[in-house]
Amino acid sequence: MVDAPAYVVVGALLFSLGVVGFLSRRNLIVIFLSTELMFQGVVVNLVALGRLHANLDGQVFALFLLVIAAVEAGLALALVVLMYRRRGTLDAHAWQTMRG
Amino acid sequence: MSPHFSIYLYAVFALGAVGLYLALPQRGRWPVRTGLILSAAALAGLLAFFGRSFLFTEGTTFYFVVLAGIALVGAVRMITHPKPVYSAILFVMVVLATAGLLLLLRAEFLAMALVIIYAGAILVTYLFVIMLAQQSGAPVYDTTAREPFAAVAAGFLLAATIVGMLGEARAGTGAESLPVASEAADAWEGLPADESAATSHTLAVGATLLTRYVVVFELAGVLLLVAIVGAIALVRRRVEETEWEGPAAGGPVEPPAPGSIGRRVEPF
Q1: Chain A residue closest to B186 (CA)?
Q2: ipTM
Q3: Is residue B76 classed as helix, strand or coil in its secondary structure?
């Protein structure tokens, strides 16, 4: 019998690994891939806690989260393609002039 | 979960954070390998914590430990691998492991939807963009990490905070752990009482989706349509319409064949 905190720990770890990847990589595609990893953690959390309450709300939420993840992936990749066309590189540092 | 368990988890996370910091892309191979070994040790500690009652209960815990291990190994290697193609394939592994975890939670429809949508659609799109836009060799933006210490510290604080909240004493429940997938949880809410005993999960999700959440369902469809239009509008290349000037103005003698304007447009 696996208890709900175990699933929440796994979900939290997946989410924070996604945060680490998002903050530390320079390749635009890997940055967005880390965002998808965050989504995985959230899905695990939602379904586990929904199961805890014997409710389907968590799973319906996760289903809509899948829709939003697909939408976000499509638009993010469209933006990545545009940014690659502009600077000829996938480096996030190429857009560093906006900083400051 | 009692508080001394959360202290153990803090220690495991700290070890994993040190390993992750060493394993992020950087010069030299031995820091990466040492980091991966440390992360593996931290993961082993974490899985030992999950499986502490493995020897005394039925097989669900074993599958949970295996699937959680696969998911976390894939996630760690995905964010530390210098090649984006490997990151995408490792993310497929993470998606499959997450689908397995959802199957353990008896959410079969969601697990299959996750595999189909993520591994089948989103990851394929990512792979296409990687194939089109990734430069060959080892470009510098793949072999160095940006602010690795700050990133790992932020991730560790986030994970420790979430897990630390689990370790706080819960007043009034009287139970140390919250059981998931118990027999009483077989009855899903939202269904008529006579059906909920032997109903499939897909039926339950479908019934809930189309009765309680039908407005959100329609809004999700509208969102998808808006996203399709937006993505096409973003990357559309504008092709100039040129008027055919005719031989008197110095243009070519023949008018352009229908559909030939804009036929040769460079994709990138």
Answers
A1: A54
A2: 0.93
A3: helix
